[in-house]
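hiii, so i know i said id send this last week but things got crazy w the move. better late than never?? heres the sequnce for the chain we talked about at the cafe, plus the structure i predicted for it. fair warning i was half asleep when i ran it
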Amino acid sequence: MSYGKETHTITAVVEDRPGVLNRICSMFRRRGYNISSLAVGKSESFGLSRMTFVVEGDFKTVEMVSKNLNKLIEVIKVFVLSKEHSISRELALVRVNSNVDTRSEIMQIVGIFRGKIVDVSRDTLLVEVTGDENKVDSLVDLLTTFGVQEVMRTGTVAMSRGISFEDRNYKEKINNH
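okay and structure toks below
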């Protein structure tokens, strides 16, 4: 959650090997950059992973983060995504107190947000929701009136809209990797 600070989304294609995440996070720490969200997963290419960072700061900060990431040997390519030309999503699991009296109201609220009830116990419901950060924040805020016990969020993942934003040089670099 950014709490009103300007945020920017950066994705990076990196070598999928031990220590890469630590080197990248150490670079962020040394330079004093704040990561609001971090998600990492395997990519479409064997031996490479994609990282999505949501970084707080102005455009100059984002430019410096991008340049510093590009200096790291394990980083293949860095992309700064604009909010207008990208899609971002987050997954959250929320355990909320419920009883016979509140269960149907919670289910209605979850339905409005196109969420799912993925587990039911006598005293709680486990809710799954996917969407942008604001959607997840809004649902969690509404559920707090019932008593939220636990929240687990994945962090933001993002891609550009439409045709791939990755240029020919990047594709050649991947193929030669």
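btw The longest helix spans residues 59-71. thought thatd interest u
miss u guys!!
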